Amino acid sequence: MIDDVVGVSNALTARWVRYACTGGSRALSGAGVWPLLALLEAAAEGPGRSELQAAVGLDPAVADRGARELLEVLARGTGVGGALGLWNLAGLPLDPWWRDAAPGGARGELTGDPAVDRARLDGWVERHTRGRLTRMPVALRPDTLLVLATALSIDTSWREPFRDVPLRPQRGPWAGRPRPAAGLSRGGTDLSPLGLAETPAGPLTMFAVLGQDDVDVYLCLGEQECAPGEVLAGAVEALAGRHPIQSGAALLAEPLARRAPGVELITVPSYDPTPHLRVMTVRFDLTDQHDLLAQPGLFGLGTVSQADPHGHFPRISRVPLKVDQGVQDVNATFTAEGFKAAAVTALSVAAGSAPPQGQTLVLDAQFDRPFGFLARHRPTGLVLLAGWVAEPEDWPEDAGPIW
């Protein structure tokens, strides 16, 4: 079943990036939202269930199982972790199905005192994101009956690190900056990490940065006029096999190299005639927050966030319930050494050198203007995190001379 779960979770990510990534720096985790929506779908009745099913992409009869399978995959992985937390107000009558559907270690109780509950839930966030995030993103109110949350963390080192270098782009929106960007450079004879995806939004250049663990990060560059959301959605779909990708030595053919945004095929003096790949990108450190109820239709939350005297989730409790908050906090950092990220998603429920002697070909890939990134769980293909880098970090003033 996990292949189906990965497919529908990635489809949610593709829909979300089209909506959310419109030009500024963003980061989001569809994999963090999807299990919560799947649990709500399995517990819902009426029109709300149909809307949640459209967002989740699985039949309600198996949605809760799918949520547990996705979280189990993350918990077993290396370099990535996932946790589920479910808290109900003490004394709230719970349906036996809900008690059985939620993993035992994930359950807890709320006292009804926002200060006491805040400290406990913030501690849970800090533990399960390795300290990268420290606060449960939803507000805790006296009338909060349920909080459902996922925490996702990523911490991997690159198999092949980058070199820190100052970068001064000569063209594009990052040209003419007062200080050079904090660039990252890497090269070698392995051409396979570079790919050209042909998508409905146009050609995309994709570079796979392989982690030591179960997580890889893909850098994604489209034509300059291509909308960020379309670049990211096209990359998600290409990795899922929906659009063709040509990679490695195939890009040494000049017509293909010319089609790849940001890529040049050049000839340089060298002792070694073996073709080389040279990649330039930038460091980034992004923090983002998303209000899921700002676009309730995207997540199937339109009906279940409205008051109804009969409630929407009879399989949770006989008390009428509605979703009153949905928030995700994200942090992602890409450096010369590796990638670290965390996402917490919460829903609250309330009532109501020597001279060269020869030449070689070099595929020169420059991610020196706004680009996207995807963090992907290698064993399953699950897209853990997606984002857009609108501005690079500055080269540190104390990092030595600028050349």
Textual characterization of the structure:
This protein has 403 residues and is α+β, with helices and mostly antiparallel strands. The chain folds into 2 domains: 2-156 and 285-350, Antithrombin, Chain I, domain 2, CATH 3.30.497; 158-283 and 355-389, Roll (Alpha-1-antitrypsin, domain 1). Helices cover 26% and strands 34% of the residues. It contains 9 helices and 18 strands. It has helices at 2-20, 30-43, 47-56, 60-76, 96-101, 114-128, 228-239, 254-259, 296-299; strands at residues 26-28, 80-89, 107-110, 144-157, 163-167, 181-188, 194-199, 202-210, 215-221, 245-247, 263-269, 276-282, 284-291, 322-334, 338-350, 359-366, 371-377, 383-389. The strands form 3 sheets. The chain has a 7-stranded antiparallel sheet with strand order 1-18-17-9-8-7-10. The chain has a 6-stranded mixed sheet with strand order 3-2-4-15-14-13, with helices on both faces. Strand 17 and strand 18 form a beta hairpin. Helix 2 (30-43) packs antiparallel against helix 3 (47-56). The longest helix is centred in the first third of the chain and has 19 residues, at 2-20. It is elongated and about 80 Å long. It starts with a helix and ends in a 14-residue tail after the last strand. The mean pLDDT is 92.
